[in-house]
Amino acid sequence: MAEGLLIKGYNGFYYVSSEGETWTCSLRGRFRLKKQDFLPGDQVEFTKLEYPKGVIENVKDRTNRLVRPAVANVRTALITFAVTNPAPDYALLDRLLIQVMNEKIRPILCFNKCELLTESEAEAVFAPYREAGFTALAVSAEKGTGLDDLKRALSGSISVFAGPSGVGKSSLINALGLGFELRTGGLSKKTERGRHTTRRVELLPLGNDAYIVDTPGFSSLYLPEDLKKEELSSFYPEFADAASRCPFRGCLHWNERECEVKNSVADGLIDQGRYSRYCQFLEELKEREKKY
Predict the structure, then answer these.
(1) Fewest CB within a 10 Å sphere: which of 12, 165, 217, 218?
(2) How many Å apart are CA 287 and CA 290, to the nearest integer?
(3) Would you state the pLDDT for residue 220?
(4) What is residue 116's DSSP assignment?
(5) 63 or 207, which is more confident?
């Protein structure tokens, strides 16, 4: 029995990449009875018929599964924003970071359209995230700068692009020069919001066992349903050192006196914007817990 990677599903058929070939597979009847779902990123076992036809026999256990986009076994999330036009929505950025890290996926921040700002202006946009310990790439799909760094960040794994519309996710994939020609939408002049250009989830091969997914842009994102207020600070790596010195066990770094995280914010060691959004999310979690 052969093994392969499911790269897309369309009109009841599943396209499986195996040893340099793509097989068009149907499902065994038992899967329809079980209502088993199959997602891009699934590792499957299949029986080869006359090329290129095959039949999927089994799907292997997943390391993770995302709902939006519907994809499995993702190792890296490239969280993509523009440095301007549109200006970054930092609350959405931080929500995406929490969502990705909650799924045990490695986040990499990608800031596009850097050609529209000076180097120092662009640096000011993403400096708080680099200082917090995240990888943040400065790129330009228009000028081609930073693309080598982007390719290295995506190597060796299934990676998902995430972020709002209009920031250039499809343009970045096209700019990688790998033969992709995804539709790009740009911004609506009236709303300055991007127009969705991606219609269905598909793994795009980068070579060296690396694949990327171009996803629809997010317009909103809730915090993970299973996230507790006591766990929120674990998604803020810049809190860790100060939090270890807080005098109270279970400190939420909110209203507690003598909180070392709050002191670090006051001393400029932790970004005020990141901390303010942390407090906003903490309020959301406290309100959500009241309802249950």
Answers:
(1) 12
(2) 5
(3) 53
(4) G
(5) 63
Residue 215 is predicted with a pLDDT of: 58
Q: According to the model, what pLDDT value does residue 196 have?
A: 40
What band does 195 get if pLDDT is binned at 50, 70 and 90? very low
Listed by start position, the domains of the chain span: 2-59, 65-213, 229-290
Gap between the Cα atoms of 161 and 141, Å rounded:
14
| CATH architecture, domain defined by 65-213 | 3-Layer(aba) Sandwich (3.40)
Query: Do the domains at 65-213 and 229-290 have one common CATH topology?
Result: no
Q: What is the pLDDT of residues 82-123, one digit of tens each?
A: 999 999 999 999 999 999 999 899 999 999 999 999 999 999
Q: Does domain 2-59 match CATH 2.40.50.140?
A: yes
Buried b (16+ CB within 10 A) or exposed e, 149-186: ebbebbeebbbbbbbbbbbbbbbbbbbbeeeeeeebbe
**Considering the domain 229-290 in this protein, what is its CATH number?**
1.10.40.50
Distances from the Cα of 280 to the Cαs of 218, 235, 277, 283, 286, in angstroms?
A: 20, 14, 5, 5, 10
Phi, then psi, of 197 in degrees rounded to 5 = -120, -10
Residue that has been written with the tokens 């060296």 in this structure: 208
The residues facing 187 across adjacent strands are 194
Cβ burial, residue 9 (10 Å; 0-12/13-18/19+) = buried
Q: What are phi and psi of 215, to 5 degrees?
A: -110, 155
With beta carbons less than 8 A apart as the criterion, state whether 17 and 36 touch. Answer: no
pLDDT in tens, 113-171: 999 999 999 999 999 999 999 999 999 999 999 999 998 888 888 998 888 888 988 88
Three-state secondary-structure class, residue 154: helix
Report yes or no: 217 and 169 within 8 Å, Cβ to Cβ.
Answer: yes
Q: Which residues of 31-64 are buried (b: 16+ CB within 10 A; e: fewer)?
A: beeeeeebbbbbbbebebeeeeebebbebeeeee
